Amino acid sequence: MVSGPIDLSPLQRELDNLRLQLCHCNHAGTCLGCQGVEMLRQQVQMIVSAASQPVLLQVAQETQAKELVKQVQEMQERLLRDPEAARALEELLKYFQAPPDEETPTNH
Ligand SMILES: [Zn+2]
Q1: How far apart are CA 44 and CA 17, in angstroms?
Q2: Pick the residue with more confidence: 89 or 103?
């Protein structure tokens, strides 16, 4: 079981790096890169807080986790229109690896 707060600083650094690479709005927070990264940052925090809650909530967590994965995939589809963003997002999605029993199609 996870106890106590989780150190997200390495991931936050990655997100900051990703945003720097994707940003086209001079950090005004209006471009897809900024918005996507901030959305992912929020989702990471949601995932972490859900995953560190008591086991009694596990079913709800799993539902929530699936919903989050769906949202991430939708964001990924939007970002895929930008090849540069897609590549950076691919790196980031390593943090969102699905459980081994999930279907994980490879497009290579
Ligand atoms: Zn931007």
Answers
A1: 16
A2: 89
